[in-house]
């Protein structure tokens, strides 16, 4: 379960919202546990083995695995900070009928005939989920607190786009 760490993870957590869905929080906890109990011990053993071979200056196994160990340690530190800082947002019946954090929203652009189904989540849940959007994105900000049938104007660099909200659902 190797995951390339995006460059943007070096940004402080305060630059984006600190909310996360319960599913996203569990995935982060599982990732931290996997790295700590499976990947890191394996890489540490490889570094020890490569170091025992003697001359480290030309030992590619040693250099590669030391680099990998640094990457894993950086990810562990980042995940520990995240798990302490994030606020898990559970579904509440008062959200029903409005676009709020964690909602699955189906939107349609009537001009161009596009339909999309998106889930509004926190930044850390985006990797690997093409139908998720960050709650900090212009689309999500425009959709927040709107209802089914509302039309929303999303201002982008390419111009304004008008979307109609067709449905709103929550995972309960």
UniProtKB/TrEMBL annotation:
Query: Which InterPro entries does UniProt cross-reference here?
Result: GreA/GreB_C_sf, TF_GreA/GreB_CS, Tscrpt_elong_fac_GreA/B, Tscrpt_elong_fac_GreA/B_C, Tscrpt_elong_fac_GreA/B_fam, Tscrpt_elong_fac_GreA/B_N, Tscrpt_elong_fac_GreA/B_N_sf, Tscrpt_elong_fac_GreB
Kindly state which keywords UniProt assigns to this record, in alphabetical order. Answer: DNA-binding, Elongation factor, Protein biosynthesis, Transcription, Transcription regulation
Domain Transcription elongation factor GreA/GreB C-terminal, chain residue ranges per copy: 95-170
Q: Name one GO molecular function term.
A: translation elongation factor activity
Look up keyword DNA-binding and say if it applies.
yes
Domain Transcription elongation factor GreA/GreB N-terminal residue range list:
19-88
Q: Name one Pfam family in it.
A: GreA_GreB
* Alphabetical list of PROSITE patterns matching this protein: GREAB_1
- Is DNA-binding among the key words of this record? yes
Q: State the protein's purpose.
A: Necessary for efficient RNA polymerase transcription elongation past template-encoded arresting sites. The arresting sites in DNA have the property of trapping a certain fraction of elongating RNA polymerases that pass through, resulting in locked ternary complexes. Cleavage of the nascent transcript by cleavage factors such as GreA or GreB allows the resumption of elongation from the new 3'terminus. GreB releases sequences of up to 9 nucleotides in length.
Q: Which family does it belong to?
A: Belongs to the GreA/GreB family. GreB subfamily.
Name of the molecule in the record: Transcription elongation factor GreB
Its lineage opens with: Bacteria, Pseudomonadati, Bacteroidota, Bacteroidia, Marinilabiliales
């Amino acid at each position: 379960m190797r995951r390339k760490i995006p460059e943007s993870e070096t940004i402080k957590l305060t630059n984006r919202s600190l909310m996360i869905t319960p599913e996203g929080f569990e995935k982060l906890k599982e990732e931290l546990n996997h790295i700590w109990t499976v990947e890191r011990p394996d890489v540490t053993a490889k570094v020890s083995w490569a170091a025992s071979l003697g001359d480290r200056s030309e030992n590619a196994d040693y250099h590669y695995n030391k680099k990998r160990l640094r990457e894993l340690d950086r990810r562990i530190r980042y995940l520990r900070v995240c798990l302490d800082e994030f606020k898990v947002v559970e579904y509440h019946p008062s959200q029903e009928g409005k676009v709020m954090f964690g909602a699955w929203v189906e939107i349609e652009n009537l001009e161009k005939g596009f339909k999309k189904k998106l889930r509004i989540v926190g930044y850390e849940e985006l990797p690997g989920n093409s139908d998720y959007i960050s709650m900090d994105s212009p689309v999500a900000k425009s959709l927040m607190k709107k209802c089914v049938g509302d039309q929303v104007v999303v201002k982008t660099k390419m111009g304004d786009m008008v979307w109609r909200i067709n449905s709103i659902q929550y995972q309960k």
